[in-house]
């Protein structure tokens, strides 16, 4: 299909944000313009989202598009960083838990839904993080939203790194109108913002929010300095370690371990869904009262069914592996894959953002090129997620490739070659000069401000 005649149509020029604030009295009917736009992308093969896997998230697997096209190929789009979701010991732990506890948690953790594996997991995580009190949530999203909504009241302030995850942004917006964003990873801007808040308000709380590893950019904050700035201004620091815990650092302690900050950050939250082979999340604190407050006052813990016993058992076994020699070897293999993937892109003159981690963000820039390239990549039987505005800044579309320990170097080379070829072909079709797209500016402006 030749798209040249369509390049200036909404198929290529519109983003989700064009449709995200419909107006008018008909709540249901006003969803239709978005659906029509999305459907036109789907039918043109330009909607690379909501695909389904037809097997476990292994390096080679079957993938079906939302319109039903099935392909078999190379998977660089799953968040099973240490490939633990198919690890025999983890699968056995899941089966044992199903036999011992059944399938269901059968209640909120407050009302009978807590289980023995969940209690064991709280203890194991507390040791791993050197934070004695842990509250579990049935999703990482709920942990991020719940910790903010649990602690912050309308007179308080939340200051977020501008690229913080949606669960943190939405938690902040639900908790208080006093929400600020500072440029990504900019500790000086954070200090200025806290100074400014404290100059007019010493009576209320300030929560500062960042991540251990930003998953769209693969970059990391300087945590010791940030924690010190927070304490200077009587603010509390929350770090979301969803992407780095287990996957990076000594014994899988993530950025906290790498920066010798274990047990030294005010609040830590995370998700099990990247490295620990199942869904779920947690908040860790040094204070028993903070733990109880977040559980009862942060909606998702009390008003949502607890983590399944099978999920808790899976995380527990995954954590045992993460901390073992085997875990170190799996991390080393993932790191080898990540470095090889970056090197393969560099050899073709394609820029990857950030630092080596399981996430390899491949800069595309121009949205038209990115949409076409994503289509071509799928047709080449390579699966990598396209990330577009507003999930990233405008003109900074990218492929977010995710390496797993189970990938081979041959698969890594094949994937990089496929992505580069798809991008080259797409660029030629869109007739955008490579320099204009590859050098898309990375200026740290908040996506929310655009
Ligand atoms: C930084 C971050 N925090 C929280 C979450 C939410 O975790 P989950 O998808 O496990 O609910 C995610 C996952 O998308 C994430 O990337």
Automatic annotation (TrEMBL):
Every Aminotransferase class I/classII large domain range: 73-417
Molecular function GO labels: pyridoxal phosphate binding; transferase activity
Pfam families to which the protein is assigned, alphabetical: Aminotran_1_2
Keyword terms of this UniProt record: Transferase
Transferase found in the keyword field: yes
Coiled-coil segments: none
Protein name per UniProt: 8-amino-7-oxononanoate synthase
Source organism of the structure: Pseudomyxococcus hansupus
């Amino acid at each position: 299909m030749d798209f040249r005649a369509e390049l200036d149509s909404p198929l290529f020029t519109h983003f989700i944000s064009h449709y995200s604030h419909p107006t008018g009295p008909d709540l249901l009917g006003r969803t239709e313009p978005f659906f029509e736009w999305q459907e036109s992308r789907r039918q043109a093969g330009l909607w690379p989202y909501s695909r389904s896997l037809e097997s476990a998230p292994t390096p080679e697997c079957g993938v079906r598009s939302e319109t039903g096209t099935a392909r078999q190929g190379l998977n660089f789009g799953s968040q099973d960083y240490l490939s633990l979701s198919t690890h025999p010991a983890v699968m056995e732990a899941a089966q044992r838990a199903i036999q011992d506890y059944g399938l269901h948690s059968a209640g909120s953790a407050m009302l009978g839904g807590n289980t023995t594996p969940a209690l064991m997991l709280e203890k194991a995580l507390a040791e791993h993080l050197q934070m004695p009190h842990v509250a579990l949530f049935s999703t990482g999203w709920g942990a991020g939203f719940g910790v903010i909504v649990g602690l912050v009241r309308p007179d308080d302030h939340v200051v977020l790194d501008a690229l913080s995850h949606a669960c943190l942004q939405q938690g902040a917006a639900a908790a208080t109108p006093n929400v600020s964003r500072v440029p990504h990873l900019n500790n000086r801007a954070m200090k200025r913002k806290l100074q400014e808040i404290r100059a007019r308000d010493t009576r209320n709380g300030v929560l500062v929010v960042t991540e251990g590893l930003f998953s769209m950019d693969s970059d990391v904050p300087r945590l010791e300095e940030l924690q010190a700035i927070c304490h200077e201004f009587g603010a509390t620091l929350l770090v979301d370690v969803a992407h780095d815990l287990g996957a990076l650092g000594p014994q899988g302690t993530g950025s906290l371990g790498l920066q010798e900050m274990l047990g030294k950050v005010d609040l830590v939250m995370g998700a099990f869904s990247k490295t620990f082979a199942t869904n779920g999340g947690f908040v860790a604190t040094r204070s028993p009262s903070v733990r109880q407050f977040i559980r009862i006052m942060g909606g998702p813990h009390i008003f949502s069914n607890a983590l399944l016993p099978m999920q808790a058992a899976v995380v527990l076994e995954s954590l045992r592996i993460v901390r073992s020699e085997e875990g170190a070897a799996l991390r080393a293999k993932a790191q080898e894959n990540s470095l090889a993937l970056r090197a393969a892109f560099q050899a073709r003159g394609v820029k990857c953002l950030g630092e080596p981690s399981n996430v390899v963000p491949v800069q595309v820039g121009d949205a038209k090129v990115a949409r076409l390239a994503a289509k071509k990549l799928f047709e080449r039987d390579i699966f990598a997620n396209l990330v577009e505005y507003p999930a990233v800044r405008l003109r900074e579309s990218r492929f977010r490739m995710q390496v797993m320990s189970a990938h081979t170097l041959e698969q890594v080379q094949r994937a990089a070659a496929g992505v580069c070829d798809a991008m080259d072909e797409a660029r030629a079709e869109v007739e955008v000069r490579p320099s204009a797209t590859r050098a898309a500016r990375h200026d740290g402006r908040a996506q929310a401000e655009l």
